[in-house]
Amino acid sequence: MHHHAYLWTGPKPRFDQEALRRPPHPEPPPPGSRPELIQRYREVAAEFPTSDLPPLETAYWLLKPRSLVQGTWPAPTDAAAWLADQLATHATRFASDLQRDASHLSRLLAAVAERLTSGGDASYGFYLERPSFISLAVVTCSPNRTRPDLPCPLES
To answer: Interior CA angle at 2 toward 25 and 5, to 5°?
Structure first.
């Protein structure tokens, strides 16, 4: 088992494009479907696997390009340390006073370490100066507990 880290920052309206943040349905629309439905399916099918947008389900980061992997660690404590570094780097830009609070961040990081140690994933998002957003994720791989069928991005 190992852990992959992902980071995305960008405009909140782009983050809100939820259709592009979920994998396409395995079956395309049936023949005779409305042209806009077919076009939307094609757009999502083409963009989801290559887009840097965070997926709605954390495990689906594993389907994204390997170039988006920010780091890989066998030890959950090392992956949690990466997340701690990212939070420390970006916390001054968090829009919420509570999210900048050191004790809040400390509790969050303790939960991350525990979750990763038990084989889970960790995913957090924060509003930055408006209208920006940051998404941080650490995904457990080989296998992922919630999606064991997903391949490791480093093996593809």
So the answer is: 65
